[in-house]
Design brief:
With 349 residues, the protein is an alpha/beta fold. It is built from 15 helices and ten strands. Strand 5, helix 12 and strand 6 form a beta-alpha-beta unit. The relative contact order is 0.09.
Length: 349
Amino acid sequence: MEPTTEDTLNSAEINHLSLIFGGHIFFQTLRTAVQLGIFDLLNKEGPLTRQEIAKRLDLQEQPLRIVVLGLISTGLLNKQGDQYSNSKVANRFLVQDSPRKITAYVELQHRVMYKGLYWMLDAVRENKNVGLKEFSGDEPTLYQRLAHEPELEKIFQEAMQELSVQTNAEMVQFMDLSDVKHLVDVGGGDGTNIIALAKRWPHLKATVFDSPTVCEIAKENIAAHGLSDRLDAVAGNCFNDSFPKDADYLMFCHFFTIWSEEKDRELFRKCYESLPPNGKVAIFNMMQHDDETGPLTAAIGSPYFLAIATGLGMLYTWNEYESWMRDAGFQKTQRHNLSLDHGLIVGTK
């Protein structure tokens, strides 16, 4: 039977499948370019020919040709004549001295997501984070096992810091902390969030509430910014331990995505019980569309939580978070749409 017009695929549709089918190849090409310093070199000295790039990076031209072909095909490099230059995206996100770089996140993808997501089929069948077997330890979550691998934990925290930087400035603008006395950033990592907030609100006292090894990293970062008089880090488990004393604002950045609906509801109830009247809870992370059609970032992030991190979470919809807040007692909720598919939802007791 001859194919009909409806059956015919256009080149854009085929290319779209090629990008998905070759995703692992294109990512490893990107990671190779970051590690070799191709984007850094072109940012400083470009445009350059392939021969010039090979000479400066001490590479053979044949393997370099393969790498730049992948970078050109995916739009990360531009080529005019025989000279190569960075795309705008590469200059912003893939150059080491860019304030918006995501190079640690690229390495995290290589070191963690690639290894763990090999087991995605098993994770779906078993509804369990089967990919966790790739990492040392016997704890039930990746975050606990990272303590066994200090280098990997450092990369993880650097990657989370890069992720926070992308939208932190926006988040700060939407948070009214004028009457807040003590903000606690639950799962606050290296302190990047509270440092940004403390600089915006000079009166603010804030605390990171995280695992012991992460709190040590946060304290060093806080001290490096000269904010130890107002900021601190306290070790604890948000499910088992009480929140730091006198908190009137509880913030969760990229945290509720980690857990199941049941666990998230439990946390919202605990927040409501812990906060004083007019106290606030805020969640800040990438959001899934309410109609469950995307965005791509939600589709990219969710398998990680299933197959590796905890086996429980995903990127939930705006409506889900808001309904869970209201069910816990937070009758007033407010949502703020931010860039890069991020969102901020604030609930008031």
